[in-house]
Specification:
GO biological process, one term: tRNA splicing, via endonucleolytic cleavage and ligation
Number of helices: 5
Low-confidence stretches: none
Family: Belongs to the SEN15 family.
Radius of gyration: 16 Å
Number of strands: 5
Keywords: tRNA processing
Shape: globular
Region (Disordered): 115-145
Helix content: 40-55%
CATH class: Alpha Beta
Domain tRNA-splicing endonuclease subunit Sen15: 29-121
Order of helices and strands: HHHEEEHEEH
């Protein structure tokens, strides 16, 4: 916890987010996306009703995504999820919401939600994902050899 408190991003969050639980969850998701998943252009943005999301790009050329952290112990209704989706669409122009479920042991599981049916990926999108995965794998392989 001492490392967390001393981290510059955490200190910045202390100035903007009053609720300690929410601040901790935002910080954990931010660090996971930046250090583990290597997302680009990460920002923390405030939505209405004092909600905060982490926005960024999973790949340099990908569209911006918004990630909303929730505790795995929290319970919320379909209406609350619908409200979140509509606020994402209004405030961030993003039709997709990624929920980051954070467990007590700091494990994070991500779920992508979208209003309505999700269209299939185009062959071009699938090809780009495969190229990115191969590039990522080759980078990791070179790192350990």
């Amino acid at each position: 916890m001492t490392r967390t408190i001393n981290h510059p991003k955490y200190r910045q969050l202390c100035a903007t987010i009053d609720d300690e639980k929410q601040r901790q969850m935002i910080f954990e998701v931010y660090m996971d996306l930046s250090e583990v998943r290597k997302w680009h252009n990460l920002n923390i943005r405030k939505l209405k009703a004092n909600r905060f999301v982490v926005t960024g790009n999973p790949m340099a050329s990908a569209a911006e995504n918004a990630v909303y952290p929730v505790s795995s112990q929290d319970k919320f209704s379909l209406g609350e999820i619908t409200d979140l989706l509509s606020s994402m669409k209004e405030e961030l122009q993003s039709p997709i919401l990624i929920l980051a479920f954070i467990d007590q042991d700091s494990t994070i599981a991500y779920s992508k939600l979208q209003n309505g049916l999700n269209p299939p990926e185009t062959p071009r999108q699938m090809q780009d994902k495969r190229k990115w995965a191969k590039h990522k794998f080759a980078r990791r392989k070179n790192k350990f050899t």
